[in-house]
Automatic annotation (TrEMBL), chain A:
This is Transmembrane protein 216. It is a multi-pass membrane protein. It comes from Melipona bicolor. InterPro entries: Uncharacterised_TM-17. The chain crosses the membrane at residues 20-37, 49-68, 80-100, 112-135. It is found in: Membrane. PANTHER family: GEO07735P1-RELATED, GEO07735P1-RELATED-RELATED.
UniProtKB/TrEMBL annotation, chain B:
Keywords: Cell membrane, Cell projection, Cilium, Glycoprotein, Membrane, Transmembrane, Transmembrane helix. It comes from Tetragonisca angustula. Pfam families: TM231. GO terms for cellular component: ciliary membrane; ciliary transition zone. Belongs to the TMEM231 family. Signal peptide: none annotated. InterPro entries: TMEM231. This is Transmembrane protein 231. One of its GO terms (biological process) is cilium assembly. It is found in: Cell projection, Cilium membrane.
From TrEMBL, chain C:
Belongs to the tectonic family. The keyword Flavoprotein does not apply. It comes from Tetragonisca angustula. One of its GO terms (biological process) is cilium assembly. GO terms for cellular component: ciliary transition zone. Residues 97-185 form the Tectonic-1-3 N-terminal domain. Residues 1-27 form the signal peptide. Residues 404-568 form the Tectonic-1-3 domain. This is Tectonic-3. Keywords: Cilium biogenesis/degradation, Glycoprotein, Signal.
Length: 142, 298, 671
């Protein structure tokens, strides 16, 4: 057992925050999806369904990312964090989709997605730092 | 590992007593109190039922292309009469107008017409002194009940100077005389009004006596003073179709929708209080009972 | 340096050449524009010579055609040395209004004149930057349709050429900031209309629109059938068959409309006659009686055609019996009076016409009387018209119009009768005598001057609360108690019509009101006595005090109270019966007049006679109650339930049931 913990507190705090934020984000997105489906002229059933599916996909990837990231960080295993870093890509792409490419972009979505993207970016940076810390060659005393 | 409280459930004591006992009467009293007193509270604060309700609806108004314009000159001269009607009192109506313009405009492109512009041109060898304009409209109501009402909008104006041009502006509303019941059938007004059947005062009285009648409010009149008999006299009317407030008596189900929540909101509070009073009375032994504790029966 | 100079000269040459070239282009262009008829062609040409050329052309032509002080210079020609056009004065290319600048768009709504610059139309392709300098503003495009769901007007995101920096439409979190939808187009379904059939199909039939003016229904003479109720009546005038027409009022009171008489339809109207000249034929009786009436159409059909000399026999064509009356139909004679008009005054003209048509149902008309009211007129007047139909077998002695059957109808007169006592063989029989001439309850009404009308009285109608006021004038030279008594008697004469004569007690008053409109019996139980609160006493004193004349104890007004109630049967709720009638006299009052100022003048004693009438509805709101059902007394033998329960177990069972119910309620509510 290494005496100096290489797990990052910042990463943990960010991830913890993100887990709650993402819960809120997902609920809001879901609500806005329903709002759009109900109130705005539909661009087509398929596209509406595709957007919902993408949201579902985002929930899965993001959930997995947060779970793995936290687990990896706490247990100081590199692999889960690595998977988390990889999962950042589809997650951020999906968020970007909601920010830019989806059919109707509401103002609230812009705000929420931007915050989510900032969180993702900062977590990416810190997780890489964390990975470096974990895979750093152990000190010569050990 | 520290234990945390994750869930809690109260213990249910059972208080047992005979029917003919003070305890039973006390419990009965509290139950009845909590059941009945909401009724008193509600009925003393305005009653349960909604007396009436308002619904705002924009009726589909359309001009019927029927009009009657009477421009009176002196009393000993026949008035200028313009109409799409052909006979009045079994006599032929001589249409004096040379031009009638009708335009219904949908300003906000919602499929319902918003403004009617009506214009009549006629020549007169003498200045006109008063104007009467009857415009016939169809009102189509859809939300609460589906009906079409034909009604007359009546504009009247006495001119105190010789004029060449008169502008009328006004809001066309549907005047409602009394509360409607939401399931009423108002098809009786859906018939074409013909002027040949009645005299004008009968026609207007009939229109007046209806439950729904068109009315022009907020009337502005602009007169252009100055008159020559060589030029055409122009009467312009611009009517804005306005939203209509329907006052109606809510149906039974709509009443129930409001009643049950009123009752429940009072009842829950009172039931909670009554329950805690009873718990207090029983647990402090003000009322003596057999207490069945759940762990003894195991 | 040399090189630069060379380039400069070269440029100059080129541009000179270019200018001459453009000049020809311009000339050509003008020609083409004038000759072009098709609008699209013109546009094409304009586009061909667009921007680069058109703007330049102006400059060159200007410099060539005139050396005027046109402040023209396009930025394109800054390159051209100014020495070449020395007279040119530079103009400030900057428009005063910054918002005026050329707009390029495919659709230009304000461009409404071909090959001419529309003022303030910045997208007009005919306008160059010189034209633009005169514009005060750019005519805005068709106002964008605002979609409230978007945060901003979409136009702003594409290009900001609005006077506002941005147009916020909605300010909430749920507005659409932008969308990624493909551009939407309205589905403009174009219908191909080739036949008239297609056209009719496409036209929305629900929308109200202009209607064809209907042909006026002109009644046609139908020879086959006899007259029926509502049929047009026919006359023969100048050997032509015409409908029977008289005057009526039109949109105004003026006698401008014709009234076609309908068989068996009573009618009464008046209209204003304003032309008091001899040529107005309706002022003279000839217009109303100089024809014969066809008593029945089928009679004429059979006989008139057979008669060869076209003279209608008397039994087929009825001539009218004329009566010329004066003073409102009062004095009538057969002698015609020659009427004439001059200078706006007419003498002996018709002020009213009354046709009394005696008919025998489908057998047609038997007889027609026409009554003319003849009078002298000096101003506009109302001409009265009345058509009355009567059955030929009508017995005028017996016929009487009721005020409702069985009760009274609102608005009908009250029927009165007099109690008569017949003493024969010592048997006193009381009955109500109904007088046909004074059959209705009447009250005094004022004439034009305010005096009580001595001839006509107002007939009280059932259900209307009224107040009537008229004045009585008494001229006296010798004022005293006698004149006050005379005044009182005159008042009572107007109010009570001498019915108080010889009445000393209130129960002696013998005027009765019929309780129901259909008074069949003269039995006094069907009649309600008019109850007086007291008998006016003649305790009147006339005094002359301080130069004023005093009458004390005068009764000048009455209050008539009529109690009625609705008939009990629901099917005749519109009928009412009179329950009781009472007259209350006003309190004795003292009235004073000033004495007349001159000697030997007569004093005028003026009293206002006021009568009030109040109807009181004393009917209770009708309630429905249902007769109770038949009583069924079924008794079981006392030991019927013996095998099942005894009395003690029954009580226990009840207790048990109650406890279960309460237990359930308790459990559900509190645990």
């Amino acid at each position: 057992m290494p005496t100096i913990a290489s797990s990052s507190l910042t990463y943990e705090i960010l991830m913890y925050l993100n887990s709650f934020y993402f819960g809120m984000f997902a609920i809001c997105e879901l609500g806005m999806g329903f709002f759009k489906a109900a109130n705005l002229p539909s661009p087509g059933t398929n596209t509406t369904l595709a957007e919902f599916a993408l949201l579902f996909f985002l929930i899965i990837t993001e959930g997995a990312r947060i779970y793995l990231g936290r687990k990896g960080n706490l247990t100081e295993h590199g692999l889960p964090i690595l998977i988390g870093v990889i999962l950042t890509v589809p997650s951020s792409l999906a968020t970007l989709y909601f920010l830019i490419w989806q059919h109707y972009v509401l103002r609230l979505e812009v705000i929420l997605c931007s915050i989510q993207l900032v969180l993702l970016a900062s977590e990416l940076v810190i997780s890489i730092l964390c990975l470096i810390a974990i895979y750093k060659p152990s000190s010569p005393e050990e | 590992m520290a234990a945390i409280e994750i869930f809690s459930s109260p213990i249910n004591y059972k208080y047992k007593s005979k029917i003919c006992s003070l305890n039973f009467l006390a419990v009965l009293f509290f139950i009845l109190l909590s059941l009945i007193s909401p009724l008193f509270i509600i009925s003393n604060t305005g009653g349960y039922s909604l007396k009436n309700h308002v619904l705002m609806e924009k009726p589909g108004v359309s001009f019927n292309y029927k009009y009657l314009l009477l421009a009176n000159k002196d009393y000993n001269i026949d008035p200028v009469v313009c109409s799409t009607f052909k006979t009045y009192k079994d006599n032929e109506i001589k249409d004096d107008c040379i031009l009638i313009k009708v335009r219904e405009i949908d300003t906000n492109i919602d499929g319902k017409k918003d403004i009617l512009k009506f214009e009549a041109h006629f020549y007169s060898d003498q200045a006109i002194k008063s104007l009467k304009l009857l415009l016939f409209f169809n009102f189509q109501l859809k939300q609460l009940f589906k009906t079409t009402v034909e009604s007359i909008a009546y504009l009247t104006h006495t001119l105190n100077e010789e004029v060449q041009k008169v502008h009328f502006y006004g809001d066309l509303i549907l005047q409602q005389k009394s509360l409607l019941s939401s399931e009423g059938l108002y098809e009786s007004y859906n018939r074409s009004i013909e002027i040949a059947d009645y005299s004008i005062d009968e026609l207007l009285m009939q229109n007046f006596n209806r439950k729904f009648a068109a009315k022009i409010t907020n009337k502005y009149v602009m007169e252009e003073a100055g008159y020559t008999n060589d030029n055409v006299i122009i009467i312009q009317a611009e009517l804005a179709y306005r939203d209509h407030l329907i006052y109606y008596q809510p149906s039974v189900w709509e009443e129930l929708k409001w009643i049950w929540i009123q009752y429940l909101s009072c009842f829950l509070v009172l039931a909670y209080i009554a329950k805690h009073v009873l718990i207090f009375l029983f647990s402090n032994r003000y009322l003596n009972c057999y207490i069945v504790t759940p762990w003894k029966n195991k | 340096m040399f090189l630069i100079k060379f380039i400069f000269i070269f440029l100059y040459l080129i541009s000179n050449d270019f200018i001459s070239h453009i000049k020809s282009v311009y000339a050509k262009k003008v020609e083409e524009t004038f000759t072009c008829v098709n609008e699209t062609e013109c546009v094409y040409i304009l586009e061909e010579t667009s921007s680069t050329t058109v703007e330049n052309i102006y400059n060159t032509t200007n410099s060539i055609i005139s050396s005027s002080t046109y402040p023209t210079q396009t930025p394109k020609f800054q390159l051209v040395p100014t020495t070449q056009v020395p007279h040119k004065i530079r103009f400030s290319n900057e428009a005063r209004n910054q918002s005026v600048y050329k707009i390029d768009s495919d659709i230009c709504e304000c461009d409404l004149t071909v090959s001419s610059c529309d003022i303030n139309c910045c997208c007009d392709k005919n306008c160059n930057s010189f034209h633009l300098t005169v514009f005060s503003y750019c005519e805005s495009h068709q106002p964008e349709l605002f979609d409230k769901r978007y945060c901003y007007n979409r136009n702003f995101i594409q290009r900001n050429n609005t006077p506002f920096i941005l147009e916020k439409l909605a300010n909430n979190l749920f507005c659409i900031l932008y969308d990624n939808l493909p551009p939407t187009y309205d589905i403009n379904y174009e219908v191909d209309i080739k036949t008239a059939e297609d056209l009719r199909e496409v036209i929305n039939s629900n929308r109200p629109t202009w209607k064809w003016t209907d042909q006026i229904y002109i009644p046609e003479y139908n020879t086959s059938s006899p007259y029926q109720d509502g049929d047009v009546m026919w006359i023969i005038y100048n050997n032509y068959i015409q409908p029977f027409e008289i005057l009526q009022s039109g949109f105004t009171a003026l006698c401008s409309f014709k009234k076609t008489l309908k068989y068996l339809r009573n009618w009464k109207d008046q209209c204003l006659q304003t032309e008091l000249i001899d040529t107005n034929k309706f002022l003279f009786p000839m217009a109303f009686n100089n024809f014969t009436i066809i008593p029945s159409p089928h009679l004429l059909n059979e006989t008139y055609i057979l008669v060869s000399d076209q003279v209608c026999p008397k039994n087929v064509c009825l001539t009218l019996t004329n009566y010329y009356c004066k003073n409102y139909w009062k004095t009538c004679s057969n002698n015609t009076l020659l009427g004439s008009c001059s200078n706006g005054k007419c003498y002996n003209i018709v002020t009213g016409v009354k046709y009394l048509i005696i008919h025998n149902g489908s057998m047609g008309i038997n007889h027609v009387d026409v009554y003319f009211n003849i009078g002298n007129v000096s101003q506009h007047f109302y001409q009265q018209f009345e058509i009355i139909y009567e059955w030929v077998e009508l017995d005028k002695e017996k016929s009487f119009s009721l005020s409702g059957n069985p009760g009274y109808i609102m608005g009908k007169p009250l029927i009165i009768g007099t109690l008569k006592v017949n003493k024969s063989n010592n048997i006193e029989t009381k009955y109500i005598n109904f007088n046909r001439t004074s059959s209705f309850l009447t009250l005094p009404i004022a004439t034009k001057s305010g005096e009580c009308n001595k001839i006509d009285r107002y007939t009280l109608a059932f259900g209307e609360d009224i107040k009537l006021k008229c004045s009585i004038f008494l001229h006296t030279n010798n004022f005293g108690t006698a004149s006050c008594i005379e005044l009182q008697n005159l008042t009572m004469h107007f109010l009570m019509q001498d019915t108080l004569f010889n009445v000393t007690q209130t129960d002696q008053y013998n005027i009765y009101v019929a309780k129901s409109g259909n008074f069949s019996s003269n039995d006094s139980t069907d009649w309600a006595q008019i109850l007086l609160d007291r008998i006016p006493q003649n305790v009147i004193v006339g005094q002359f005090v301080n130069g004023r004349l005093y009458c004390s104890g005068l009764i000048t007004s009455i209050h008539l109270n009529i109690l009625y109630s609705a008939l009990s049967k629901p099917e005749t709720l519109n009928n009412h019966i009179i329950v009781g009638v009472g007259i209350t006299f006003s309190a004795e009052s003292n009235i004073s007049w000033s004495k007349c100022l001159y000697e030997n003048c007569s004093d005028i004693l003026k009293v206002d006679v006021i009568s009030y009438v109040t109807f009181h509805d004393i009917s209770k709101p009708s309630k429905y109650y249902f007769a109770g059902g038949p009583n069924l007394d079924i008794t079981l033998p006392y030991d019927f339930f013996y095998p099942f329960l005894s009395s003690s177990t029954c009580v226990k069972l009840n207790n048990f049931l109650i406890s279960i119910v309460w237990g359930m309620i308790l459990h559900n509510l509190f645990y």
